Amino acid sequence: MNHYMTPLLVGCNPSLMSSPSEPPYDNDIDLSTTLIAELNAQDRSAYAISNATVVHGHASPNDNDNNDNTLEVGEIQRVILTIHCLLKGYEDNDWITTRISDILNLQQPESATLVTRLNLTNVLETLSVVQIVPTRAASLKSLLASDLQYLTTSEEERKFMLHPQAFYWLAELDTWKNSAVTSETSYTWMSRYVLAIVFYENVFVGDVVNQTDNGISRFQTWLSSSESVCEWSGLDCNGDGILTRVYLDYDEMTGHMPTELGLLTHLTYLNLFQNSLTGSIPTEIGRLTSLKAVFFAGNLLTGSIPSEIGQLSSLTRLSLPNNNFVGLIPSEIGQLTRLVVVLLSDNKLSGMIPSQIGMLTSATRLGINANALTGSIPAEIRQLTSLTGLFFNENNLSGSIPSDIGMLTSLSELAFDQNSLTGSIPLSIGSLTGLTELHLNANELSGNVPSEMSQLSNLREDRCQISEGNLFNDTSSMPGVCT
Predict the structure, then answer these.
(1) What is the mean pLDDT of residues 54-64?
(2) CA 472 → CA 263, 447, 452, 467, 476, distances in Å?
(3) Which of 63, 146, 222, 469 lies in disulfide reach of 59, CB 3.0 to 4.6 Å?
(4) Partners of 365 in the beta sheet?
Protein backbone atom coordinates (compact mmCIF):
# COMPACT_ATOMS: atom_id res chain seq x y z
CA MET A 1 0.00 0.00 0.00
CA ASN A 2 1.32 3.44 -0.93
CA HIS A 3 0.77 5.48 2.21
CA TYR A 4 1.28 8.76 0.42
CA MET A 5 -0.97 8.56 -2.62
CA THR A 6 -4.29 8.02 -0.82
CA PRO A 7 -6.41 11.12 -1.67
CA LEU A 8 -7.21 13.43 1.20
CA LEU A 9 -10.80 14.16 2.07
CA VAL A 10 -10.98 17.75 0.86
CA GLY A 11 -10.99 19.37 -2.54
CA CYS A 12 -7.92 20.89 -4.13
CA ASN A 13 -8.34 24.50 -5.22
CA PRO A 14 -5.83 25.12 -8.04
CA SER A 15 -6.47 28.85 -7.89
CA LEU A 16 -4.49 28.96 -4.67
CA MET A 17 -1.49 27.64 -6.54
CA SER A 18 -1.57 30.42 -9.08
CA SER A 19 -2.04 33.09 -6.43
CA PRO A 20 0.05 31.95 -3.44
CA SER A 21 0.24 35.45 -1.99
CA GLU A 22 -3.45 35.30 -1.07
CA PRO A 23 -4.46 33.48 2.13
CA PRO A 24 -6.44 30.22 1.83
CA TYR A 25 -10.20 30.51 1.70
CA ASP A 26 -12.46 29.52 4.57
CA ASN A 27 -13.58 26.32 2.89
CA ASP A 28 -10.00 25.09 3.11
CA ILE A 29 -9.24 25.93 6.73
CA ASP A 30 -9.93 22.39 7.89
CA LEU A 31 -7.24 21.01 5.61
CA SER A 32 -4.58 20.64 8.31
CA THR A 33 -6.99 18.80 10.61
CA THR A 34 -7.95 16.49 7.76
CA LEU A 35 -4.30 15.86 6.97
CA ILE A 36 -3.72 14.79 10.58
CA ALA A 37 -6.66 12.39 10.45
CA GLU A 38 -5.48 10.97 7.14
CA LEU A 39 -1.91 10.44 8.36
CA ASN A 40 -3.17 8.77 11.53
CA ALA A 41 -5.49 6.54 9.53
CA GLN A 42 -2.44 5.41 7.54
CA ASP A 43 -0.49 4.51 10.70
CA ARG A 44 1.65 7.59 10.29
CA SER A 45 0.96 8.98 13.76
CA ALA A 46 4.67 9.46 14.42
CA TYR A 47 4.76 11.92 11.57
CA ALA A 48 1.38 13.56 12.11
CA ILE A 49 1.32 17.32 12.34
CA SER A 50 0.94 18.31 15.96
CA ASN A 51 -1.11 21.13 17.42
CA ALA A 52 -3.12 21.71 14.27
CA THR A 53 -5.03 24.60 15.78
CA VAL A 54 -1.96 26.77 15.33
CA VAL A 55 -2.19 26.41 11.56
CA HIS A 56 -5.99 26.43 11.58
CA GLY A 57 -7.23 29.67 10.08
CA HIS A 58 -5.42 32.82 9.01
CA ALA A 59 -2.64 34.91 10.42
CA SER A 60 -3.46 38.33 11.74
CA PRO A 61 -1.29 41.29 10.67
CA ASN A 62 0.56 41.11 13.98
CA ASP A 63 1.25 37.37 13.93
CA ASN A 64 4.67 37.55 12.35
CA ASP A 65 5.80 40.83 13.90
CA ASN A 66 7.34 41.86 10.58
CA ASN A 67 10.05 39.25 11.04
CA ASP A 68 11.24 38.21 7.58
CA ASN A 69 12.43 34.85 8.91
CA THR A 70 9.03 33.83 10.32
CA LEU A 71 6.39 32.29 8.07
CA GLU A 72 2.84 33.50 8.63
CA VAL A 73 0.38 30.91 9.79
CA GLY A 74 -1.48 31.31 6.52
CA GLU A 75 1.71 30.59 4.58
CA ILE A 76 2.24 27.38 6.54
CA GLN A 77 -1.29 26.33 5.70
CA ARG A 78 -0.70 27.09 2.01
CA VAL A 79 2.35 24.82 2.10
CA ILE A 80 0.21 22.04 3.55
CA LEU A 81 -2.39 22.67 0.86
CA THR A 82 0.30 22.56 -1.81
CA ILE A 83 1.50 19.19 -0.55
CA HIS A 84 -2.08 17.98 -0.64
CA CYS A 85 -2.45 19.12 -4.26
CA LEU A 86 0.89 17.61 -5.19
CA LEU A 87 -0.12 14.25 -3.76
CA LYS A 88 -3.34 14.36 -5.80
CA GLY A 89 -1.48 14.99 -9.03
CA TYR A 90 -1.67 18.78 -9.37
CA GLU A 91 1.94 19.88 -9.66
CA ASP A 92 3.49 23.30 -9.69
CA ASN A 93 7.13 22.54 -8.95
CA ASP A 94 8.31 26.14 -9.22
CA TRP A 95 5.91 27.31 -6.53
CA ILE A 96 6.51 24.44 -4.11
CA THR A 97 10.28 24.71 -4.63
CA THR A 98 10.18 28.38 -3.65
CA ARG A 99 7.96 27.91 -0.60
CA ILE A 100 9.77 24.87 0.79
CA SER A 101 13.10 26.57 0.16
CA ASP A 102 11.85 29.40 2.37
CA ILE A 103 11.06 26.89 5.11
CA LEU A 104 14.41 25.14 4.90
CA ASN A 105 16.23 28.46 5.10
CA LEU A 106 14.55 29.49 8.36
CA GLN A 107 17.13 30.14 11.05
CA GLN A 108 14.65 29.30 13.83
CA PRO A 109 14.49 32.83 15.27
CA GLU A 110 13.44 33.25 18.86
CA SER A 111 10.17 34.78 17.70
CA ALA A 112 9.19 31.52 15.94
CA THR A 113 7.29 29.39 18.42
CA LEU A 114 8.22 25.81 19.14
CA VAL A 115 4.80 24.71 17.89
CA THR A 116 5.44 26.41 14.57
CA ARG A 117 8.77 24.65 14.23
CA LEU A 118 7.12 21.33 15.04
CA ASN A 119 4.62 21.91 12.27
CA LEU A 120 7.36 22.79 9.80
CA THR A 121 9.32 19.67 10.75
CA ASN A 122 6.35 17.42 10.14
CA VAL A 123 5.54 19.11 6.85
CA LEU A 124 9.07 18.24 5.80
CA GLU A 125 8.54 14.64 6.90
CA THR A 126 5.66 14.44 4.43
CA LEU A 127 7.91 15.86 1.72
CA SER A 128 10.35 12.99 2.15
CA VAL A 129 8.54 10.87 -0.45
CA VAL A 130 7.36 13.62 -2.78
CA GLN A 131 9.18 13.74 -6.10
CA ILE A 132 9.92 17.44 -6.01
CA VAL A 133 12.33 17.51 -8.95
CA PRO A 134 11.37 14.73 -11.38
CA THR A 135 14.83 14.31 -12.92
CA ARG A 136 17.44 14.34 -10.17
CA ALA A 137 15.06 13.37 -7.35
CA ALA A 138 13.90 10.20 -9.08
CA SER A 139 17.48 9.10 -9.74
CA LEU A 140 18.54 9.91 -6.21
CA LYS A 141 15.62 8.00 -4.72
CA SER A 142 16.61 4.95 -6.70
CA LEU A 143 20.24 5.33 -5.69
CA LEU A 144 19.49 5.85 -2.00
CA ALA A 145 16.97 3.00 -1.89
CA SER A 146 19.57 0.57 -3.20
CA ASP A 147 21.97 1.56 -0.40
CA LEU A 148 19.43 1.83 2.40
CA GLN A 149 18.64 -1.86 2.02
CA TYR A 150 21.95 -2.61 3.73
CA LEU A 151 20.91 -0.89 6.94
CA THR A 152 19.45 -3.11 9.64
CA THR A 153 15.84 -2.02 9.27
CA SER A 154 12.75 -3.73 7.97
CA GLU A 155 11.38 -3.14 4.48
CA GLU A 156 8.38 -1.33 6.00
CA GLU A 157 10.64 1.06 7.90
CA ARG A 158 12.71 1.78 4.80
CA LYS A 159 9.63 3.20 3.08
CA PHE A 160 9.85 6.17 5.41
CA MET A 161 13.59 6.28 5.93
CA LEU A 162 14.53 9.15 3.61
CA HIS A 163 15.49 12.09 5.76
CA PRO A 164 13.21 14.89 4.53
CA GLN A 165 15.51 17.89 4.89
CA ALA A 166 18.63 16.05 3.76
CA PHE A 167 16.90 14.58 0.73
CA TYR A 168 15.31 17.86 -0.27
CA TRP A 169 18.66 19.63 0.00
CA LEU A 170 20.31 16.93 -2.10
CA ALA A 171 17.58 16.86 -4.75
CA GLU A 172 16.85 20.55 -5.06
CA LEU A 173 19.31 22.83 -3.29
CA ASP A 174 22.68 21.13 -3.65
CA THR A 175 24.77 23.13 -6.11
CA TRP A 176 27.53 20.57 -6.53
CA LYS A 177 29.17 21.21 -9.88
CA ASN A 178 28.88 17.54 -10.83
CA SER A 179 25.11 17.31 -10.96
CA ALA A 180 24.85 14.03 -12.87
CA VAL A 181 23.59 11.02 -10.90
CA THR A 182 25.53 8.10 -12.36
CA SER A 183 26.96 4.82 -11.12
CA GLU A 184 30.39 6.49 -11.10
CA THR A 185 29.22 9.26 -8.76
CA SER A 186 26.81 7.20 -6.64
CA TYR A 187 29.08 6.91 -3.58
CA THR A 188 29.77 10.64 -3.64
CA TRP A 189 26.04 11.40 -3.76
CA MET A 190 25.50 9.00 -0.88
CA SER A 191 28.27 10.72 1.06
CA ARG A 192 26.66 14.12 0.52
CA TYR A 193 23.31 12.76 1.66
CA VAL A 194 24.72 11.22 4.85
CA LEU A 195 26.68 14.38 5.67
CA ALA A 196 23.53 16.44 5.14
CA ILE A 197 21.78 14.23 7.71
CA VAL A 198 24.66 14.81 10.14
CA PHE A 199 24.21 18.54 9.52
CA TYR A 200 20.45 18.59 10.08
CA GLU A 201 20.49 16.22 13.06
CA ASN A 202 23.00 18.24 15.05
CA VAL A 203 23.12 21.72 16.52
CA PHE A 204 25.90 23.53 18.32
CA VAL A 205 26.19 24.81 21.85
CA GLY A 206 28.81 26.67 23.82
CA ASP A 207 32.18 27.80 22.53
CA VAL A 208 33.39 25.95 19.46
CA VAL A 209 37.11 25.17 19.58
CA ASN A 210 37.56 24.16 15.95
CA GLN A 211 36.20 27.07 13.95
CA THR A 212 36.41 28.39 10.44
CA ASP A 213 37.93 31.82 9.80
CA ASN A 214 34.45 33.26 10.27
CA GLY A 215 34.26 31.93 13.83
CA ILE A 216 31.57 29.30 13.22
CA SER A 217 31.68 25.55 13.55
CA ARG A 218 33.46 23.78 10.74
CA PHE A 219 30.55 21.96 9.21
CA GLN A 220 28.04 24.82 9.36
CA THR A 221 29.50 25.78 5.97
CA TRP A 222 28.96 22.36 4.38
CA LEU A 223 25.60 22.72 2.67
CA SER A 224 26.44 26.08 1.15
CA SER A 225 29.38 24.61 -0.77
CA SER A 226 29.24 23.69 -4.45
CA GLU A 227 32.52 21.83 -4.10
CA SER A 228 33.28 18.16 -3.65
CA VAL A 229 33.04 16.92 -0.05
CA CYS A 230 36.83 16.67 -0.22
CA GLU A 231 36.85 20.47 0.09
CA TRP A 232 34.47 20.61 3.05
CA SER A 233 35.91 21.57 6.41
CA GLY A 234 36.68 18.64 8.69
CA LEU A 235 36.75 16.05 5.90
CA ASP A 236 39.49 14.35 3.89
CA CYS A 237 39.43 12.13 0.81
CA ASN A 238 41.80 9.66 -0.77
CA GLY A 239 43.48 10.16 -4.14
CA ASP A 240 40.34 9.00 -5.96
CA GLY A 241 38.17 11.68 -4.35
CA ILE A 242 36.44 9.23 -1.99
CA LEU A 243 35.58 10.43 1.53
CA THR A 244 37.78 8.52 3.99
CA ARG A 245 38.33 10.71 7.07
CA VAL A 246 35.98 12.72 9.30
CA TYR A 247 37.38 15.19 11.87
CA LEU A 248 34.61 16.76 13.92
CA ASP A 249 36.27 16.85 17.32
CA TYR A 250 35.62 19.78 19.67
CA ASP A 251 32.74 21.06 17.52
CA GLU A 252 30.21 21.12 20.39
CA MET A 253 27.75 19.01 18.40
CA THR A 254 24.62 18.05 20.27
CA GLY A 255 22.55 15.43 18.53
CA HIS A 256 23.07 11.79 17.68
CA MET A 257 24.93 9.55 15.27
CA PRO A 258 22.54 8.63 12.44
CA THR A 259 22.30 5.03 11.32
CA GLU A 260 23.18 6.23 7.83
CA LEU A 261 26.81 6.56 8.94
CA GLY A 262 26.94 2.86 8.11
CA LEU A 263 26.73 3.79 4.42
CA LEU A 264 30.13 5.54 4.42
CA THR A 265 31.91 2.24 3.87
CA HIS A 266 35.20 3.81 2.73
CA LEU A 267 35.80 5.63 6.03
CA THR A 268 39.13 4.88 7.66
CA TYR A 269 39.02 7.55 10.40
CA LEU A 270 36.03 8.78 12.41
CA ASN A 271 36.73 11.41 15.05
CA LEU A 272 33.78 12.81 17.03
CA PHE A 273 35.83 13.43 20.17
CA GLN A 274 34.68 15.91 22.82
CA ASN A 275 31.22 16.90 21.65
CA SER A 276 27.82 16.53 23.33
CA LEU A 277 26.44 13.66 21.28
CA THR A 278 23.67 11.57 22.83
CA GLY A 279 22.01 8.27 22.00
CA SER A 280 23.77 5.02 21.21
CA ILE A 281 26.37 3.88 18.72
CA PRO A 282 24.34 2.60 15.74
CA THR A 283 24.81 -1.09 15.07
CA GLU A 284 25.38 -0.16 11.44
CA ILE A 285 28.90 0.88 12.43
CA GLY A 286 29.77 -2.76 11.81
CA ARG A 287 29.58 -2.07 8.06
CA LEU A 288 32.57 0.30 8.22
CA THR A 289 35.13 -2.45 7.86
CA SER A 290 37.81 -0.07 6.55
CA LEU A 291 37.87 1.94 9.78
CA LYS A 292 41.27 2.10 11.45
CA ALA A 293 40.48 4.66 14.16
CA VAL A 294 37.33 5.52 16.12
CA PHE A 295 37.32 8.41 18.60
CA PHE A 296 34.00 8.91 20.41
CA ALA A 297 35.45 9.94 23.78
CA GLY A 298 34.04 12.83 25.77
CA ASN A 299 30.40 12.71 24.68
CA LEU A 300 27.12 11.76 26.37
CA LEU A 301 26.61 8.48 24.53
CA THR A 302 24.49 5.78 26.16
CA GLY A 303 23.42 2.21 25.55
CA SER A 304 25.74 -0.73 25.15
CA ILE A 305 28.82 -1.07 23.01
CA PRO A 306 27.40 -2.91 19.97
CA SER A 307 28.74 -6.39 19.32
CA GLU A 308 28.97 -5.39 15.65
CA ILE A 309 32.09 -3.46 16.56
CA GLY A 310 33.85 -6.81 16.31
CA GLN A 311 33.43 -6.62 12.53
CA LEU A 312 35.87 -3.70 12.28
CA SER A 313 38.79 -5.95 11.49
CA SER A 314 41.08 -3.10 10.39
CA LEU A 315 40.66 -1.12 13.63
CA THR A 316 43.85 -0.09 15.43
CA ARG A 317 42.45 2.57 17.81
CA LEU A 318 39.20 2.41 19.76
CA SER A 319 38.56 5.35 22.07
CA LEU A 320 35.19 5.41 23.92
CA PRO A 321 35.98 6.84 27.39
CA ASN A 322 34.02 9.49 29.26
CA ASN A 323 30.56 8.52 28.09
CA ASN A 324 27.64 6.71 29.72
CA PHE A 325 27.90 3.28 28.12
CA VAL A 326 26.32 0.42 30.08
CA GLY A 327 26.21 -3.35 29.82
CA LEU A 328 28.96 -5.82 29.07
CA ILE A 329 32.19 -5.39 27.18
CA PRO A 330 31.28 -7.40 24.07
CA SER A 331 33.30 -10.59 23.71
CA GLU A 332 33.55 -9.78 20.00
CA ILE A 333 36.20 -7.23 20.90
CA GLY A 334 38.63 -10.14 20.79
CA GLN A 335 38.23 -10.24 17.01
CA LEU A 336 39.98 -6.87 16.71
CA THR A 337 43.45 -8.34 16.69
CA ARG A 338 45.01 -5.23 15.14
CA LEU A 339 43.99 -2.97 18.02
CA VAL A 340 46.89 -1.00 19.44
CA VAL A 341 44.97 1.35 21.77
CA VAL A 342 41.77 0.30 23.59
CA LEU A 343 40.20 2.90 25.90
CA LEU A 344 36.80 2.18 27.50
CA SER A 345 37.30 4.00 30.80
CA ASP A 346 34.92 6.29 32.69
CA ASN A 347 31.69 4.66 31.64
CA LYS A 348 29.15 2.46 33.44
CA LEU A 349 30.17 -0.89 32.01
CA SER A 350 29.41 -3.94 34.16
CA GLY A 351 29.88 -7.68 34.21
CA MET A 352 33.13 -9.56 33.85
CA ILE A 353 36.11 -8.70 31.69
CA PRO A 354 35.76 -11.11 28.74
CA SER A 355 38.56 -13.66 28.42
CA GLN A 356 38.68 -12.80 24.70
CA ILE A 357 40.52 -9.64 25.68
CA GLY A 358 43.61 -11.83 25.74
CA MET A 359 43.42 -12.00 21.94
CA LEU A 360 44.40 -8.33 21.60
CA THR A 361 48.06 -9.21 21.30
CA SER A 362 48.94 -6.02 19.38
CA ALA A 363 47.59 -3.74 22.10
CA THR A 364 50.01 -1.37 23.81
CA ARG A 365 47.45 0.46 26.00
CA LEU A 366 44.36 -1.09 27.57
CA GLY A 367 42.19 1.10 29.77
CA ILE A 368 38.88 -0.13 31.21
CA ASN A 369 39.17 1.73 34.50
CA ALA A 370 36.41 3.68 36.27
CA ASN A 371 33.54 1.35 35.41
CA ALA A 372 31.52 -1.16 37.45
CA LEU A 373 33.23 -4.35 36.29
CA THR A 374 33.14 -7.42 38.54
CA GLY A 375 34.75 -10.84 38.69
CA SER A 376 38.44 -11.65 38.51
CA ILE A 377 41.22 -10.39 36.28
CA PRO A 378 41.30 -12.89 33.39
CA ALA A 379 44.41 -15.03 33.26
CA GLU A 380 44.52 -14.47 29.50
CA ILE A 381 46.05 -11.03 29.99
CA ARG A 382 49.41 -12.81 30.18
CA GLN A 383 49.23 -12.99 26.38
CA LEU A 384 49.29 -9.18 26.02
CA THR A 385 53.06 -8.94 25.98
CA SER A 386 53.07 -5.71 23.93
CA LEU A 387 51.26 -3.72 26.64
CA THR A 388 52.99 -0.64 28.00
CA GLY A 389 49.95 0.58 29.95
CA LEU A 390 47.32 -1.56 31.75
CA PHE A 391 44.52 0.17 33.68
CA PHE A 392 41.88 -1.88 35.53
CA ASN A 393 41.57 0.49 38.50
CA GLU A 394 38.33 1.87 40.00
CA ASN A 395 36.13 -1.17 39.39
CA ASN A 396 34.71 -3.92 41.61
CA LEU A 397 37.19 -6.62 40.63
CA SER A 398 37.89 -9.45 43.07
CA GLY A 399 40.19 -12.44 43.30
CA SER A 400 43.96 -12.30 43.15
CA ILE A 401 46.45 -10.58 40.87
CA PRO A 402 47.42 -13.21 38.25
CA SER A 403 50.63 -14.96 39.30
CA ASP A 404 52.15 -14.62 35.83
CA ILE A 405 51.68 -10.84 35.60
CA GLY A 406 55.47 -10.76 35.24
CA MET A 407 55.12 -11.95 31.62
CA LEU A 408 54.07 -8.43 30.62
CA THR A 409 57.66 -7.23 30.48
CA SER A 410 56.88 -4.21 28.29
CA LEU A 411 54.71 -2.58 30.98
CA SER A 412 55.64 0.89 32.18
CA GLU A 413 52.27 1.69 33.85
CA LEU A 414 50.15 -0.73 35.89
CA ALA A 415 47.03 0.30 37.83
CA PHE A 416 44.88 -2.23 39.73
CA ASP A 417 43.99 0.11 42.61
CA GLN A 418 40.52 0.76 44.07
CA ASN A 419 39.11 -2.72 43.59
CA SER A 420 38.53 -5.64 45.99
CA LEU A 421 41.56 -7.73 45.07
CA THR A 422 42.80 -10.21 47.68
CA GLY A 423 45.80 -12.41 48.23
CA SER A 424 49.44 -11.39 48.00
CA ILE A 425 51.45 -9.45 45.45
CA PRO A 426 52.86 -12.11 43.06
CA LEU A 427 56.62 -12.61 43.09
CA SER A 428 56.74 -12.28 39.28
CA ILE A 429 56.04 -8.57 39.58
CA GLY A 430 59.78 -8.18 40.03
CA SER A 431 60.21 -9.00 36.32
CA LEU A 432 58.47 -5.77 35.34
CA THR A 433 61.68 -3.79 35.46
CA GLY A 434 60.39 -1.15 33.04
CA LEU A 435 57.63 -0.01 35.42
CA THR A 436 57.58 3.72 36.10
CA GLU A 437 54.10 3.73 37.69
CA LEU A 438 52.50 1.11 39.94
CA HIS A 439 49.16 1.47 41.75
CA LEU A 440 47.89 -1.43 43.89
CA ASN A 441 46.44 0.55 46.80
CA ALA A 442 42.85 0.50 48.08
CA ASN A 443 42.40 -3.27 47.74
CA GLU A 444 42.42 -6.09 50.32
CA LEU A 445 45.89 -7.43 49.59
CA SER A 446 47.79 -9.12 52.39
CA GLY A 447 51.01 -10.97 53.17
CA ASN A 448 54.48 -9.58 52.69
CA VAL A 449 55.66 -7.15 50.05
CA PRO A 450 57.92 -9.42 47.97
CA SER A 451 61.63 -8.70 48.00
CA GLU A 452 61.61 -8.96 44.20
CA MET A 453 60.08 -5.51 44.12
CA SER A 454 63.49 -4.10 44.92
CA GLN A 455 64.32 -4.71 41.25
CA LEU A 456 61.81 -2.06 40.16
CA SER A 457 64.39 0.68 40.03
CA ASN A 458 62.57 2.81 37.45
CA LEU A 459 59.54 3.55 39.60
CA ARG A 460 58.94 7.28 39.88
CA GLU A 461 58.43 9.02 43.17
CA ASP A 462 54.76 9.64 43.97
CA ARG A 463 53.81 7.27 41.14
CA CYS A 464 53.93 4.16 43.29
CA GLN A 465 51.08 3.41 45.72
CA ILE A 466 50.92 0.00 47.35
CA SER A 467 50.24 -0.06 51.08
CA GLU A 468 47.22 2.22 51.55
CA GLY A 469 44.23 0.12 52.50
CA ASN A 470 46.14 -3.18 52.25
CA LEU A 471 47.04 -5.51 55.15
CA PHE A 472 50.71 -6.34 54.65
CA ASN A 473 52.66 -8.12 57.41
CA ASP A 474 55.97 -6.79 56.18
CA THR A 475 56.64 -3.77 53.96
CA SER A 476 60.41 -3.68 54.43
CA SER A 477 61.00 -4.74 50.82
CA MET A 478 58.79 -2.01 49.41
CA PRO A 479 60.74 0.37 47.15
CA GLY A 480 61.54 3.65 48.85
CA VAL A 481 59.53 5.71 46.34
CA CYS A 482 56.36 3.76 47.13
CA THR A 483 53.80 4.58 49.79
Answers:
(1) 31
(2) 57, 5, 15, 7, 10
(3) 63
(4) 341, 389
